[in-house]
């Protein structure tokens, strides 16, 4: 194996540079959101099947050597695993890792906000799809809005102020709350991103309602434009899949509010894709919508030395990058394009 392999930057066949890794820590979740998981859950992997913190850290060290700078911990609900702050601290200590972020439903944040902040967590994406407690429960099937809001407050208080709210907009479920969510996020001084519901998994709201479930980015822009003066916020372009808009007008602070729209379904942004994904069991995926995975756990648990493992991991990363498709292929008429649900992939 050539020694350069382990330091070469990650650029795919379409000249996209990968510098971001999303890691699912678990498929399990204390919620069962209607767009993400079946009501009864899925057959989850057993604990010994999940990568432990040492294995994740060794894998991430190789990604970092190849140019990955940003890590997002997601799931499932990452905080249902014990000691996530310990993992955050380990990842923050790695050379090359500049940003460690968490995506969470917030339910366990009242307990973990402080240790996460102490461990050096850089930012939080928090999912809130409704401001009506009853509806919040209907969407999440198990969630409690009040507790999630407490989690957001605790995170801010602990010093993690880089917070974004994610809201998946589902027609007939919460699409009447678009404006309220904008006002709420502005009042909390956090950035809101609306996400088009995606046809991922087999037994979710998409499977039941088909593409009608999806409120398109275009519809969302039209809605926002009716309520507020709206202009593209290009200062934020390029940092991820969201396209950002600056809104000015009634009910918002005098300097306005920034809102992002993630239009994975109707306005594909694959040409700017900068990421790979690792599942909780060590499956390396080149795309959310492509079930093909390369098994990194097999390498991490092999009897080889850590140095030899690092070379094999690096080659596996190259292979995944080589397989990365030009764009996703959401078949909008199908029930769901992937076998795995979003919680199992790491949304
Ligand atoms: N449990 C955490 C949470 O809910 O934030 C992290 C995992 S969750 C899978 C990550 C993100 O994926 C959440 O913002 C969630 O709303 C989003 N998501 C899940 N299923 C989705 C779907 N079918 N379409 C679009 N977004 C989805
Ligand atoms: Fe759990 Fe997040 Fe999926 Fe909701 S979106 S079921 S909180 S993993």
What would your notes on this structure say?
The chain is α/β, with parallel strands linked by helices and 347 residues long. 31% of the residues lie in helices and 17% in strands. It has helices at residues 53-65, 84-92, 109-119, 133-140, 145-158, 178-187, 205-209, 217-227, 296-300, 306-323, 342-345; strands at residues 20-24, 70-74, 99-104, 123-127, 163-169, 191-196, 229-232, 243-248, 257-262, 275-278, 283-285, 293-295. Strands 7-8-9-6-5-4-3-2-1-10-11-12 form a twelve-stranded mixed β-sheet. S-adenosylmethionine (SAM) binds next to β3, β5 and α11.
The main pleated sheet reads as:
12 strands, mixed
| DSSP helix fraction | 25-40%
Coarse shape = globular
Order of helices and strands: EHEHEHEHHEHEHHEEEEEEHHH
By secondary-structure content and strand pairing, the structural class works out as: alpha/beta
Question: Order of strands in the sheet with the most strands?
Answer: 7-8-9-6-5-4-3-2-1-10-11-12
Unreliable stretches: none
Estimate the mean pLDDT confidence: 91
- CA distance, first residue to last residue: 34 Å
Q: C-alpha Rg, in Å?
A: 20 Å
Approximate strand percentage: 15-25%
Instruction: Give the count of helical stretches.
Output: 11
Work out the number of β strands. 12
Name the ligand types. Answer: S-adenosylmethionine, iron/sulfur cluster
């Amino acid at each position: 194996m050539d020694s350069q392999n382990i330091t070469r930057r990650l650029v795919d066949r379409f000249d996209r540079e990968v510098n971001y890794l999303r890691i699912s820590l678990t498929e399990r979740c204390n919620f069962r959101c209607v767009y993400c998981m079946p009501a009864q859950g899925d057959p989850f992997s057993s604990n010994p099947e999940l990568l432990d913190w040492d294995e994740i850290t060794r894998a991430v060290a190789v990604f970092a050597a190849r140019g990955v700078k940003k890590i997002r911990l997601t799931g499932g609900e990452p905080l249902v695993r014990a000691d996530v702050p310990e993992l955050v601290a380990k990842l923050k200590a790695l050379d090359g890792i500049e940003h460690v972020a968490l995506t969470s439903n917030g339910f366990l944040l009242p307990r973990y906000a402080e240790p996460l902040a102490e461990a050096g967590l850089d930012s939080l994406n928090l999912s809130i799809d409704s401001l009506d407690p009853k509806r919040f429960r209907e969407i999440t099937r198990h969630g409690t809005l009040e507790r999630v809001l407490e989690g957001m407050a605790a995170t801010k208080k602990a010093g993690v102020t880089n917070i974004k709210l994610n809201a998946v907009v589902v027609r007939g479920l919460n699409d009447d709350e678009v404006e309220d969510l904008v006002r709420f996020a502005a009042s909390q001084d956090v950035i809101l991103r609306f996400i088009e519901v995606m046809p991922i998994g087999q037994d979710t709201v998409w499977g039941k309602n088909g593409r009608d479930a999806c409120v398109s980015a275009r519809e969302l822009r039209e809605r926002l434009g009716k309520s507020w003066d709206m202009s593209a916020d290009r200062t934020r372009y390029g940092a991820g899949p969201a396209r950002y808009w600056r809104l000015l007008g009634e009910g918002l602070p005098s300097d306005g509010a920034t809102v992002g729209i993630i239009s994975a379904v109707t306005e594909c942004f694959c040409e700017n894709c900068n990421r790979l994904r690792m599942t909780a069991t060590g499956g390396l995926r080149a795309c959310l919508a492509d079930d093909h995975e390369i098994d990194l756990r097999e390498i991490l648990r092999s009897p080889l030395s850590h140095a030899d493992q690092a070379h094999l991991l690096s080659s596996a990363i190259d292979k995944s990058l080589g397989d990365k498709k030009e764009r996703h292929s959401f078949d909008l008429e199908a029930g769901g394009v992937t076998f795995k649900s979003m919680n199992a992939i790491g949304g």
